[in-house]
Amino acid sequence: MSRGVHAGLAGLALLALGGCVSAIESGPPIANPADLAARVRTSTSASGPATLRFEWTYADRRGSVGGQGVGRYNPPDSLRVDLFTSGDVAMAIAVAGRELRSQGEIEDVEIPGLEFVYAMAGLFRPGDGVAEGYTTASDSVLVYGGVSDRRTYFYVRNGRLRRVEERIHGRTVQRVNLEWEAPGAWPSEAEFRDLEEHSRVRWRVEGVVSQEESHPAHVYDLPRVP
Known about the structure:
Elements: H1 3-18, H2 33-43, E1 50-60, E2 63-74, E3 78-85, E4 88-96, E5 99-104, H3 114-120, E6 132-135, E7 140-144, E8 150-157, E9 160-168, E10 171-179, E11 189-194, E12 199-210
Antiparallel strand pairs: 1-2, 1-12, 2-3, 3-4, 4-5, 6-7, 7-8, 8-9, 9-10, 10-11, 11-12
């Protein structure tokens, strides 16, 4: 059997195991993706507690709403985000101890998954699982999901998250894009898009205050998301 036939059969086997293989998986593999994942997790962790202030907008087919927001971070993994409209809290979202919690609501707005909430703040927190790693022309890409139909892709450049995508059968269904304007632990802008619901959340950081004392633990104690 020719070498070309062998290669074709190998490709078909890979498709059968992993669903639709994207161009990412066709790229050069990273030798030890677990080491890269550990380094990125460290590099995307602020060294101390911080308070962030930002402006935000949410938009879907019905229209848009926006306002001001406040984020409170305790290293390594506690993050609370409060969204205000006209001075009132429209929604509060907190992640702590790998649990997603919320309070209040914006009508019919779905909260992104845990990895995407972290990613909006530039934090690489992929959860459990073994990473695959590949290189592109500009990025290193860490992929989670094994041979399942649902896989998550973390695009990393210079130790920072640049983009996160969730794909089902090779089709992107959710995505976070990040912008970094200056050195520092926090992105200047982030946008989450749900491509199935045709909705998006965008925020732009207006100021970051580092502090010595941690935020009180109770601020992250919101009702658990079912």
